[in-house]
Structure formats: C-alpha cells, structure tokens
What we know:
The strands form 3 sheets. Strands 3, 5, 6, 7, 8, 15 and 16 form a 7-stranded mixed beta sheet that branches. This protein has a 6-stranded parallel beta sheet with strand order 11-10-9-12-13-14, with helices on both faces. 29% of the residues lie in helices and 26% in strands. The chain is of the alpha/beta class. It has 2 domains: 2-114 and 281-311, Quinone Oxidoreductase, Chain A, domain 1; 117-255, NAD(P)-binding Rossmann-like Domain (Rossmann fold), CATH 3.40.50. The chain is built from 10 helices and 16 strands. The chain is globular.
Amino acid sequence: MRVTAARLVQHGQPLQVEELELGEPGEQEVILDVAYSGVNPVDMYGAMGLVAPDAPVPRTLGTEAAGIVEGRRVMVRGYGLGTIRDGLWASAAIVPRGALIDVPDGVDLRAAAAMGIAGVTAWRTVTELAQVSADDTVLVLGAKGGVGSIVVSLAHGIGATVVGQTGEAENGDWIKAHGADYVVAADAGGLVDALADLRPTVVFDALGGEFTGAAVEVLQPYGRLVLYGASAGPEGMVPLRTLYRKGITIRSYGGLMASDEDLAAAIRQALPAVAAGRMTVPIDSAIPLKQVNDAFERIRKRNVRGKLVLDAQG
C-alpha cells in the first residue's frame, strides 16, 4: 500500500513529503486511514532533535490523529507513534489496536485529531487539577493558544466566569467568541492593574516566566494556580510571602509522565463534552500534508489561534 508521509530525514532540516510503501500490520495492529493529524510544538522540537534525539531517523512524525479504521471513526495517540516508531503525519498509518479511541457522533474529526495532547491537557487541568466549578472566576493566561483556548471553552461550559489574557488586543474578539466573559490585553507587568476588578480564584498558566509571579499576585486567597507550560520563560520570580499568606495551591501538569491508559481514559471522558458542546477545540487551519513545513513556520512565529491540524488527504 502506497502512502504519502511527512518524514524527518535529518534533525534541523525541513521535513520531506514522500511516497512510501506502508507494509502490512502485525498482530494487534491495524491500518488507520488518516483524516487529520494534530500539530504541536513538541513535534517541531522532535524535528529539531530537542525531543527524543535518539529516536530513529528517518521516520514519519506525528503523535496524534483521527480517521477511519474498519468503518469506525477513531482517534489515536501515544504508544510511541511519531517517536520510537513511524507516526501519523501520513495518508495512512499502522497503529496498535490498543491505541484506538472511538470518536462519538457530533465530534468533528479535526477536533478529535487535537485531543491527544491539547484536548486532554485542557480536560485534566480543568476537571482534575483545578476542579473548576460555576462559582469560580478563571483566568487563562495565553488564551489564544492551543490548550488555552480549549480551557476557556471548558471553563465556560462548566459555568465559571472566564477571563482570557492575551498579549495582543486584536485577539480579544476571537477569545470572547470561544467563551471568555472578559479579555485583558496585558503583559506580566500590567496584569495586576488589568485585573483590579476581576480577582480570579483559579489561574491556568501556560506561560511561566514573569507571568507565574503575577498570577500569584492576582489570585484571591485560597486560589489555585495550575502550571502546564513555560512558553514565556522557564524561570521566574514568585512572591513567596504572598503565596503562603494567601494559602494558594500550586498544581502542575506533566502529560509526558502519564500512561497511555490514563490519558486514553481521560480522553474518553472528554469526548462526550465535545459532542455536547460543553467543550470546543478551536481549529485555526487544516493545512495540507504537503505543506507541513508551513505549519512549523506558523508555530515558530506564534501565528496561530487555537490548533493547527494537517489534512492528511490534502
């Protein structure tokens, strides 16, 4: 079976889109006809050799996707796909049968393709770590991002008051359209003043750097801070007296430590919420597979609202 695949041939070099022979699935493996594949920063880091530098090269990248197996609408993620074995940035792929997660009616396959990393991160941080309720005021730092935009929608679906932070005022209407009640356009230094009348009980922090300290300052007493990224910087100053005097709880999310089974269980919980409209996965663009390097360029330039996916048949 001939397929089109985006291949990492050399770290630090553009991916090559090639025709190759897929081969035959082994025992407990199946062929997935890929519809869409998720694109994440970690994929770009893998292509650069910053993540899984000892993984085999050449290989097909892509760690999450959605498509059809034996007439079933499914999504797949994990199980070494895209790292220790060929991945999902292809028109078809061999996947372990155990990796299949059924996609319910009402869930677009583009959204399903982004549930393996961003979607499950949003679900677990909101429902498990922060345990957001309708009584909360939630601040989402980096609200236009892949995870942040899903967190906005899910917190809104729960009934919380949602505040989205962005560094660019032009993102305001887009963030509100996906569930934010308020939008603040502010950097870390301006966050406290921007939130003078909106004291959050929960902060979701994908940014790190100086934003984490600012999050501690703006939280109400006994508030919860959930840290799941550091795109603004891996280090930052935290006001410790404020932290302990307010009784703030800090939780962090490291999805790479979770087992495939635990993540699959969380995704199965989250997909019905997507089907019911209580959680949305904003898709910026479905980029044709042959233009995969354009997707990396957009991630580098942070020229994305929500999620990028690859159209595996495009």
